Amino acid sequence: MKRSLFLVLTILAVASMLLASCGTAAKTGKGPGGSIPFPTGGKTVTVGFSQEPDLVDALFSSMSYAAWVDQSIQVGLGTWDANNNLVPELATEIPSIANGGVSADGLTITWHLRKGLLWSDGQPLTSADVKFTWQLLTDPGNAVYTRAGYDQITSIDTPDTTTAVLHFKALYPGWQTLFDSGPNNQGNIQPMHILQGKTGLEKDPFIHWPTISSGPWVIADWVAGDHMTLWPNPNYWRGKPKLDQIQIKFVPDPETAKAALKTGDVDFVPDFAESDLADLPALEPAIHTRVDAGPEFEHYLFNLGVKGTGVGQSDYDGFCPFKDVKVRKAIILGIDRQTIVNTLLFGKTTVPASLWPNSFWYNTNLTPYPYDPTQAASLLDSAGYALGTDGIRHGMCNGVDTKLSFNFETTNKQLREDMAAAVQAQLKQIGIEFKPIFTPSGTFFGNYASGANMATGNFDMAGYTTGFYPDPYTDGFLCSTVISAQNQGGDNNYHLCDPALDAIMQASNASADPAVRKTAIDQAQQYMYDNALVVPMYARANVMSYVDRFVLPPTSVIGGMMGDTFDWDVK
Amino acid sequence: MWTYISRRLLQALVILVIITGVCFLLTHFSADPMSQYANKQGMTAADRAIIAHSLGLDQPLPVQYVKWLWLALHGNLGNSFFSRQPVLTMIAQRLPLTLELMVTAEVFIIIISLILGTVSAVKQYSAIDNIITSFSFIGYSMPIFFIAFGLMQIFAVQFKAWGLPYLPTGADIWNPKDLGALIRHMVLPVTCLVIIQVAGYSRFLRSSILEVLGLDYVRTARAKGLSERTMLFKHALRNALLPFITIIGLDIPFLLGGALVTESIFAWPGMGRLFWEYAQRGDFPVVNGVLLLTGTAVVFFTIVVDVLYTFVDPRIRLS
Q1: CA angle, A80 as apex, A78 and A84 as ends, to 5°?
Q2: Which end of chain B is more exposed for a tag (fewer CB within 10 A), N or C?
Q3: How far apart are CA A525 and CA A364, in angstroms?
Q4: ipTM associated with this complex
Q5: Residues near A318 by beta carbon (within 8 Å), at least 6 away in sequence
């Protein structure tokens, strides 16, 4: 018996070692360097990601981590600098009316590529690749993430290898988001010589792991679930990046990530949650933490739906009292957002007054509503909602005695739960019963067909993060996008159809000139502010921690987390 | 016997179909894979419709499931909704790493449980028994994440701070040919798994040995004048190990499923993480692929254990 047991144990131990070496050795070396030892010397930085990209080519992924890796290897004609300005990348200049790149009617955009551009495999990168990228994106056989804007292009002329002339069928004011690197990297250029003649590309191995690149780095190695290795692209037009190698390690647990920073197993963690700010500052001076407030923001939204089957109508009526601007304004005034930011977010971000904070499009003339429970109570009184014996206000709404008691739905993220608890306590003080419901994000963000409450309009109030990608997205406020049984693909989660707002939003898209659009966008924000249509809670912050030896340059909050890896360095 | 095995295999097939069907429904109702694309500004309804069509999500639920089942019966587990890779490829990438971790841990669990359980039983109520018992209860009652972070803080973070050689915080398969590095990275996760499992197994073995030591034949063996050592190893332990071996046998299929918490904390790229990361997002092909693998292993090893009983204990007959 003992001998048998010993034999079994020995076989198990040997088998496990053999399996280990089989399993890993098979997954190395697709990149240009073949099997890569770690580290090879030179200047190396190890980055910790909490999630692994599903696939890398961001044209086919909704995942931020895919976009971040992709920004380092596949670039567009333009990109965003640290000051959030669009600057040339593969192009020589950004088209404008002044330089003739944008036609007077805004329907023709001309890009000029740099001369002598090469893919990392030595093949020329030309305007034909730009045209091919458009064809790839508009091929219905490819399940790309989005074709928005690209589907407005009727043709692309390539009179020479460095010129691409885009012809639009209608004015597309967000043309700057096309063919440019950005937060979702939805404008990276694809290699025609690799992908031409294929369809159903979402399943193509190149989309999963692009083995050649146009950006500063190439993915040299990828061990599923463990790490990726980036090596410099020898043909990148700007030359070699300051680092010799970037390792991306997949560390799902934030506590492990903090321990790994302390031991030096990783040098940089770009994706801590805002709630981690509780203990990250204590890691100074060995580990620094930087918080960049971005254009995305957490907001609470009222369901303003009106039941019906017409355009702009929903399957459900929103909570009746929300139809009254006084009630909506009272709710904003009754939430102490600054204290929430100071306590739950350690004062590291800001309370915005309106949409698109920390961006060119933000209306800086607006001041966030203050916390003023007295004024809130007074507004509720004047709206006809008096305090009941149970401490909750009630009043007549559409002829029905209605309590100011409503559900609030959001995801089961800890920070959201903490914030909702604070809001619940604050609103109770002005006689409002705020009842949070937390669900997994997969359920909360479900589509209409899945019966998700927010999509179907079967909710009172909800909370989530929205933002700016990188052009103000106004479609979500239009009557034509209100979600209903008749319009299941809409994305107006507010279920709001306000013809006045609709007109302003449409006007913001009537010009290709950003300066002209800014006026309308400012007006839209003013209207939403005056009518208290949403409750902007706080500007979402990118929380990054890094060891002292790592030199992290200023990052564009629009450009994305890894849009500047060319300039990463170590002391 | 062959009739018995054939019948069990047929039953197993039905069980697996039921398991995958239930899993399909649970995954479907717990997370909508298309929710990944909700609230993505700039994405149009047409974009979403094309993606849903490419994933087959625009078809009725029963059709989705039957299509998957048909492919599975032909050895194709489909493609992930998100990575778009074949599920078999994804499992093949993770399974060896999970086995490396789990099998190594299992070997240590068996050896240490045997030693502690035997010593604890033979020295019942002695100081050493009390110490082992105390540590077993401590190990058994502590949540695994607490042990994992405790080990990490001491042997990685603090050892580094004290200037001592320290262990890494997470898995690093930088160089698979470097056996030394591999072992260094395995120390903490394996220790963590061993602490949790040994606590229970050693107690189980102790009880089993104590029960056997009280039986008539052991008393007879003692009366024959056998030494305690001979009596223990030749007679008592042999019988006491039978239920222990059964438990170990039933553990084997679960080795394939990995250890979710340990793998997540130590960033080990195994099956547990694969299952969890994709289950949260409603990636039915990956979830069901992993479940089918572990379910098949459970059913297979249950049959194997049943058959082995007939060899170990001649009183058992399969019918």
Answers
A1: 145
A2: C
A3: 10
A4: 0.85
A5: A302, A303, A304, A305, A306, A457, A460, A495
